[in-house]
Every structure is written in C-alpha cells, then in structure tokens.
Hints:
Blueprint: H1 4-15, H2 23-31, H3 43-46, E1 49-54, E2 57-62, H4 64-70, H5 78-97, E3 102-105, E4 111-114, E5 120-122, H6 123-144, H7 170-179, H8 185-197, H9 199-205, H10 211-231
Antiparallel strand pairs: 1-2, 3-4, 4-5
Helix pairs in contact: 1-2, 1-5, 1-10, 2-5, 5-10, 6-8
Amino acid sequence: MGSAVMHLCIGKKVSQKLNNSDRKEFLIGNLAPDLSKLTNLSRYVSHFLKKVNINGTEREVPDLDKFIKKYKNRLNEPFIQGYLCHLISDDIWFRNYIPNHVVAITEDKKQILLRDIDDYIPYDDFKKTMYRDYSKLNKYLFEMYKINLKKFDNMDIDNPNMEEFEFEEIHRLIEQISYFLEYTEDTIEKASIEIDEENEEVNETLELLSNTEVVTYIEEAIDKVIDDYTEIGLIK
Length: 236
C-alpha cells in the first residue's frame, strides 16, 4: 500500500478537527482508495481520476468536484470524509510533488524522464524506487506523528455502499494495515533515536525522496484538507 503511512499521518491530524465519533471509520475510509492496488478495480474509478496538464506534461489527478457532487448528501459520514481526505492528499502529491521528480511521461505511460537524469527509464522502475523510499520512511513518520494502530484491532464497519470501494475485499485492506502493527512503542522509540543520530545517513539511503520533503507534503496536505473541509462545511 505504498504511501499508506503518509495517509495515516494526514488522516490522524485531520480527524482530530472533525466532530464525528467514529475516527476508526474515517481512517479506514482514508486508506480505502488504495485498495484498488490489490484488486482489479481501476484507479480511474477508485480515485476519480481526470487528466490535466501540469508544466506541459499530461498528469492524472483526482477530480475532487466530481466526488463531492456525487456524495454531497453523504459528506457527514466518517468513511466518506476519510475517502475525500485521501483524494485531496493525492491531488496535492501529484500536482505539487511528483513534478519535482518526473519531468516527462511518454504517451503510452511506460517510460518517464526523471529530473537530473538524461534518459527515459521504465515507469515500473520509478514506481519500485518510490515504494522503497516510502518503506524506508515509515518508522520515521510513525514516530513523528505518533501513529497508534490499536484502533484498527477491530475492523468491523458498516458497508459504505460505494461503487469505488469493494467492501467484500476489506480483508485485504486489513492485511495491509496489519503489516504496520510490527511498529510497537519500543521499535518506534528505537527508530526515532537512530534517525535523530544518523539523520544524514538516513537521507542518503533514500533514492528519490527526503524525509524533509515528505513531512512538508504531509503538513501541506493537512492544511489543504482542513481548508477544503471548512469551505464545504465539514469543519466549523
């Protein structure tokens, strides 16, 4: 689930601003769009994707207006709010941060040109590199944002009845979340000490991203989600 931890960090901060009582349901909704990575559901469906031109390159970003229009009568539901949080966060990531690394994409989406590299590389190689960086940053983010997964011990939630989310596959989402349950308080504390003492080394091991860039993104996403929620009346 790649950037699941980044979404958990954003979701935790945003959920604290909401007046709903079911934070777990919000957080599951916040992770739900990426269940499409584990199923056959198209990301165009799960992420409401539309094509836009950013710096001369065609990109795919969530169509937030389309989502809000479709679920305007259900925006008071924690799961729907969490889902929207994910889409807003992805919009920022693909508009403002991916272009820092990806200069151009071929029409067939199979090759990309990275900044500071003079030739195209396979898109799959780029994805693998990015996901390795996500994994390396996980413990750092768990410590910085004090992520507590105990709320996911019981994953029973009502079916949100969304075409974009395959509720019968929720067990696969649970399996992905359980991967992170290895981060106990002891391992998080140890990881934070290592990162504090060897911050430069940690940055050197990352191939594309930096912890500073990712934290900057998370904070920007939190602010943007809160602003958007305020604009549509979810936060007073």
